């Protein structure tokens, strides 16, 4: 049991929720639902009793009862009416399962299976590259017997996959051997290993602002303090900054957008962070590509401040505009590179890696042994085939993604002309600037229109980016059209009831007692 949430703490988290745009019970349920999805209220926590919460909020107990009932119906509270409900994630019973005994399929948080009837715009990923992945697994099964006499534990990873990854880096201009590779269960696993090895509790970790939300979660979970350094803003007025770079409805971006290397260097010298986590290749969420000139500056700044530079290359292969770039590790042997096959091939592979010098790889292997003893062998054998022919599925994938990007930008221009869009040069999503700070409010009401969103503040530190929303173009064109129409309808509701924009304040830490 994770404890209980007292009514005063929940009241602070709710902020200004009772705005009169919908029945009070529905507004209360909507806000609590978003707090659970955003992790501001943890799972398996008992919410306040109906009586105490009604007294604290100065509303009728009937309103609280109806709100809790709505949350139970949606699957966000686990108890029966009248008892202390515990927070949970909705489950969907699969055909043939016993509802009373089935564990079901998690369905209500970004990265989890989307509930039936909703289009998922919270998670930027693609289905498997079909026959290519299937063929790799078929080959892996034929190779498995040769490894069966062994124990199956390999903290560093199967040699065939490490050799394939090393050869891939060497072909890209970064001479690498097998001893410089540690195979992991995805890039997120890789980052957790690096954090455990290089940074202690309360240590600073420099991050871009905005950045990948799961990286922020990993940094915080390690007890470290993320230090945000803003990217040059592509918006105008308010939000996280101002400046050129965005055009209404997806026009071509103004040249010059990239990273503020002066700010990065100054932050490193003044704060001396243990690590810097950077997504230089088709940055998530903006889709920017760091120029080689800035990569050189970045590694020099990291060396001058004794900061370990960790570069996430997960999206590097999704180069939609074919712009050439050099891996950051080519500019310094001290760079730690992490990558995976999740975006280029399939997230279900859970195959990732760390590339670093041999001494660091040994440290990472020692740290990894406290988390697990190695990855699944069959998946690694299959991944070795995929890495050796890394480009095989990419032409078709990139062609489809370019088309999806064009479709999405055109749809946004037609139906949401007041939104400003930074055209990405690669990756899987566009970063949109909203005309008002309404990202969280849009996320709250989005399921009413058949879509699921990730609020802009998820991509930043300190509640920033209420003016922004990430919209992936991973869905097929017909679903993108449906999704943009839904976004338009949600925006229209906010325009008709502007007080909804104040539904939630900046994220606060929940008090658990």
Terminal CA distance: 12 Å
Portion of residues in helices?
25-40%
Number of helices: 15
Across the major sheet, the strand order is 4-11-10-9-8-5-6
The CATH topology of the largest domain comes to: Aspartate Aminotransferase, domain 2
The CATH superfamily of the largest domain bears the name Type I PLP-dependent aspartate aminotransferase-like (Major domain)
Poorly predicted runs of 5 or more residues: 92-111, 235-256, 503-513
Tell how many strands the DSSP assignment holds.
15
Topology as a string of helices (H) and strands (E): HHHHEEEHHEHEHEEHEHEEEHHHEEHEEH
The level-1 CATH class of the largest domain: Alpha Beta
Rg result? 23 Å
Specify the CATH architecture of the largest domain: 3-Layer(aba) Sandwich
- The number of domains is 3
What composes the largest sheet? 7 strands, mixed
3D shape:
globular
3D structure, described in words:
This protein folds into three domains: 7-106, Arc Repressor Mutant, subunit A, CATH 1.10.10; 153-232 and 252-374, Aspartate Aminotransferase, domain 2 (3-Layer(aba) Sandwich); 394-502, Alpha-Beta Complex (Aspartate Aminotransferase, domain 1), CATH 3.90.1150.10. 37% of the residues lie in helices and 11% in strands. The chain contains 15 helices and 15 strands. It has helices at residues 7-14, 24-37, 50-57, 61-74, 130-143, 159-171, 187-198, 213-221, 261-271, 292-304, 358-368, 377-388, 394-415, 439-445, 477-496; strands at residues 91-92, 105-106, 119-120, 181-184, 204-209, 225-230, 247-248, 275-278, 308-312, 336-340, 352-355, 420-422, 429-433, 451-452, 468-472. The strands form four sheets. The chain has a seven-stranded mixed β-sheet with strand order 4-11-10-9-8-5-6, sandwiched between helices. α1 packs across α3 (50-57).
């Amino acid at each position: 049991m994770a404890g209980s949430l007292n009514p005063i703490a929940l009241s602070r988290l709710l902020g200004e929720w009772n705005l009169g745009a919908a029945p009070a019970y529905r507004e209360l349920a909507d806000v609590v639902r978003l707090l659970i999805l955003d992790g501001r209220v943890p799972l398996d926590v008992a919410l306040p009793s109906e009586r105490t919460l009604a007294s604290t909020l100065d509303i009728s107990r009937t309103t609280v009862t109806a709100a809790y009932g709505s949350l139970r119906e949606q699957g966000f509270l686990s108890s029966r009416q009248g008892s202390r409900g515990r927070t949970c994630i909705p489950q969907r019973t699969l055909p043939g399962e016993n509802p009373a005994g089935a564990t079901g399929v998690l369905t209500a948080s970004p990265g989890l299976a989307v509930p039936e009837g909703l289009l998922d715009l919270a998670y930027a990923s693609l289905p498997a590259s079909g026959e290519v992945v299937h063929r790799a697994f078929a080959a892996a099964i034929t190779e498995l017997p040769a490894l069966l006499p062994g124990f199956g534990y390999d903290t560093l990873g199967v040699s065939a996959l490490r050799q394939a990854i090393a050869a891939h880096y060497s072909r890209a201009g970064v001479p690498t051997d097998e001893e410089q590779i540690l195979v992991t269960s995805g890039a997120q696993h890789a980052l957790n290993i690096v954090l455990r090895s290089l940074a202690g509790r309360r240590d600073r970790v420099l991050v871009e602002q905005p950045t990948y939300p799961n990286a922020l979660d990993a940094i915080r979970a390690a007890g470290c303090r993320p230090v945000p350094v803003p990217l040059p803003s592509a918006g105008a007025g308010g939000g996280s900054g101002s400046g050129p770079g965005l055009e209404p409805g997806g026009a071509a971006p103004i040249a010059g957008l990239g990273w503020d290397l002066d700010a990065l260097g100054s932050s490193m010298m003044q704060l001396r962070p243990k690590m810097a986590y950077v997504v230089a290749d088709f940055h998530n969420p903006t889709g920017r590509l760091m120029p080689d000139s800035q990569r050189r500056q970045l590694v020099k700044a990291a060396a001058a401040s004794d900061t370990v530079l960790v570069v996430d290359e997960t999206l590097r292969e999704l180069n939609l505009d074919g712009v050439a770039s050099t891996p950051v590790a080519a500019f310094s042997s001290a760079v730690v590179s992490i990558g995976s096959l999740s975006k280029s091939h399939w997230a279900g592979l859970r195959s990732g890696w760390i590339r670093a010098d041999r001494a660091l790889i040994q440290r990472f292997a020692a740290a990894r042994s406290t988390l697990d003893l190695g990855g699944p062998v069959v998946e690694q054998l299959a991944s070795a085939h995929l890495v050796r022919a890394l480009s095989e599925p990419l032409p078709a994938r990139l062609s489809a993604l370019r088309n999806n990007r064009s479709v999405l930008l055109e749809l946004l221009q037609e139906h949401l002309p007041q939104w400003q869009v930074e055209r990405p040069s690669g990756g899987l999503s566009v970063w949109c600037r909203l005309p008002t700070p309404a990202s969280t409010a849009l996320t709250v009401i989005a399921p009413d229109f058949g879509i699921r969103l990730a609020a802009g503040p998820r991509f930043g530190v300190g509640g920033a980016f209420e003016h922004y929303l990430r919209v992936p173009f991973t869905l097929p064109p017909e679903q993108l059209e449906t999704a943009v129409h839904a976004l338009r309808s949600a925006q229209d509701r906010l325009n008709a009831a502007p007080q909804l924009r104040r539904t939630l304040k900046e994220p606060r830490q929940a008090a658990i007692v």
